[in-house]
């Protein structure tokens, strides 16, 4: 213990929380290697690093989900042992997770009650949830079951659940990854208020413009070690990205003269009822994506994005075959395997559980979307050796960081699992790709890699439909953008002929004439008003 106490602060103001000499090993793999971190009251401190740098491991130690192999955590200068999240919460530490820790079959209120004291349950809890909704714009229906909610709505539960505990330190792991710009602006207002109240915030995000706006100090991790600290407001997003990955991040560039001939993905007057009480019906949707084209679909979470993806992937079937056509062939009533046989590939929004089975190895997960199209052995079984080769190719092509030769998918960081899932589909060389939230939770270098891979795939003739809540992403990769609102789709507009403000107005429910009329004079901050 003496060796670790030697890392405790000497001189200067005592930090609210500190971590000194933190080492965390998983077998032979060292996720954190001698990390020192100090967090002061009234500051927003960024923790930056590429996927697999050790950020999430360190956060889990501070929240009591993991115990360090070596090192100490301090609270106001005193060494403390955070044996579990209850101990962390008792000291005033709250956490908003990147991956939702919610029980699908419970309601919003029941999920929040799980971490509340008995006195704050039932009607009292419902009133507190409503109060936070009024105060911070984080509106939730306490009676809705979690399974019926969009990703953005689930994120609100995590934030409200944390704030109801009156934390002194709030740890936020990619809090805006599934939020629209308007929702993110509302969150920033909340965070700035918490900071002004004297609370500390530890902020993890790959959206570096957010970091520059909110944070006045940043600690940068690479390979499990601290490689530097800086004032984010004195840096550019590009220089921060270079500090994180150790090299300049390449710019994304579309291939010139992409083929544009045949329509490959056609949706023709698709109407589907809501699949559940709180889901969104699809209302007379029509769209066309040609060979070599990328169509972006923008929208606020909960407006039919998940329902559209399910209808395109075959997880929900249309009432007639002609409602969805793949390379001219009617596919509306076909399931996902049959659509894959027609040359389509799909990347869902939720990587854990939907795109990948967390308890299965990477090679086994490589088979999940290939079993209907992969070659069979003489016994009719999928060739596991081929799956291992495929997993290796994905890992190498998309720089997937992992521990061990073929680990379980659930052991990867969120960003690395996203790279694996996207790589699995792109390396199939599909003729049609539907991808939902392609760079959710990945670092700047990985986001650039994924976006370039999507552009390159389109350059080889693939028709790509990208559903994303990241408008910067859509304006970077899409040829045209349509907006999904309340289950209805606006007419696609070439990216070069629209603006973030116009798209934001459509996301908020404005008509197409109203949204596009003021494009030339739209103020730069118009989008921030959309929530």
Automatic annotation (TrEMBL):
Q: Which residues cross the membrane?
A: none
Domain (ABC transporter) ranges: 17-248, 265-511
Tell me the InterPro entries matching this sequence: AAA+_ATPase, ABC_carbohydrate_import_ATPase, ABC_transporter-like_ATP-bd, ABC_transporter-like_CS, P-loop_NTPase
Family matches, as Gene3D superfamilies: P-loop containing nucleotide triphosphate hydrolases (3.40.50.300)
Alphabetically ordered keywords of this record: ATP-binding, Nucleotide-binding
Q: Does the keyword Phosphoprotein apply?
A: no
Top-level lineage group: Bacteria
Key word Nucleotide-binding present: yes
- A GO molecular-function descriptor: ATP binding
Q: Which family does it belong to?
A: Belongs to the ABC transporter superfamily.
Q: This protein is called what?
A: Nucleoside ABC transporter ATP-binding protein
What species was this sequence derived from?
Methylobacterium gossipiicola
Source organism phylogeny = Bacteria, Pseudomonadati, Pseudomonadota, Alphaproteobacteria, Hyphomicrobiales
């Amino acid at each position: 213990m003496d060796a670790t106490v030697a890392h405790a602060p000497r001189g200067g103001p005592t930090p609210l929380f500190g971590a000194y000499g933190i080492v965390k090993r998983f077998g032979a793999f060292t996720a954190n290697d001698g990390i020192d971190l100090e967090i002061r009251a009234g500051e927003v401190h960024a923790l930056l690093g590429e996927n697999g740098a050790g950020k999430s491991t360190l956060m889990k130690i501070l929240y009591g989900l993991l115990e360090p192999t070596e090192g100490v955590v301090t609270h106001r200068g005193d060494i403390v042992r955070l044996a579990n999240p209850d101990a962390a919460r008792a000291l005033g530490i709250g956490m908003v997770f990147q991956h939702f820790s919610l029980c699908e079959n419970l309601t919003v209120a029941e999920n929040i009650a799980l971490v509340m004291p008995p006195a704050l349950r039932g009607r009292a809890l419902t009133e507190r949830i409503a109060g936070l909704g009024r105060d911070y714009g984080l509106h939730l229906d306490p009676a809705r079951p979690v399974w019926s909610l969009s990703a953005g709505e689930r994120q609100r539960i995590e934030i409200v659940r944390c704030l109801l505990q009156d934390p002194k330190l709030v740890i936020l792991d990619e809090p805006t990854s599934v939020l629209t710009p308007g929702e993110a602006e509302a969150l920033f207002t909340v965070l700035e208020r918490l900071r002004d109240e004297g609370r500390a915030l530890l902020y993890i995000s790959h959206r570096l413009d957010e970091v520059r706006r909110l944070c006045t100090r940043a600690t940068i991790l690479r390979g499990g070690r601290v490689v530097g600290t800086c004032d984010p407001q004195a840096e550019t997003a590009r220089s921060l990205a270079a500090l994180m990955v150790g090299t300049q991040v390449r710019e994304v560039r579309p291939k010139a003269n992409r083929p544009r001939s045949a329509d490959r993905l056609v949706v023709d007057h698709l109407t589907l009822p809501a699949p559940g009480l709180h889901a969104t019906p699809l209302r007379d949707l029509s769209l066309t994506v040609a060979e070599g084209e990328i169509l972006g679909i923008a929208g606020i979470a909960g407006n039919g994005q998940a329902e559209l993806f399910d209808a395109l992937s075959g997880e929900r079937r249309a009432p007639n075959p002609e409602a969805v056509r793949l390379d001219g062939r009617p596919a509306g009533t076909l399931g996902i395997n049959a659509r894959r046989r027609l040359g389509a590939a799909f990347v869902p929004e939720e990587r854990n559980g939907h795109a990948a089975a967390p308890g299965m190895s990477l090679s086994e997960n490589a088979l999940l979307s290939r079993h209907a199209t992969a070659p069979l052995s003489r016994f009719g079984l999928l060739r596991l050796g081929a799956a291992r080769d495929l997993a290796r190719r994905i890992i190498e092509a998309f720089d997937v960081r992992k521990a061990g030769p073929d680990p379980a998918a659930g052991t990867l960081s969120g960003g690395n699992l996203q790279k694996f899932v996207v790589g699995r589909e792109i390396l199939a060389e599909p003729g049609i790709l539907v991808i939902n939230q392609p760079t959710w939770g990945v670092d700047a270098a990985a986001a650039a890699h994924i976006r370039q891979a999507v552009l390159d795939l389109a350059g080889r003739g693939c028709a790509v439909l990208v559903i994303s809540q990241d408008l910067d992403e859509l304006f970077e990769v899409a040829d045209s953008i349509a907006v999904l609102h309340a289950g209805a789709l606006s007419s696609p507009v070439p990216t070069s002929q629209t603006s973030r403000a116009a798209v934001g107005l459509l996301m908020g429910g404005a008509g197409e004439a109203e949204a596009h009329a003021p494009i030339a004079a739209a103020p730069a901050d118009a989008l921030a008003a959309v929530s």
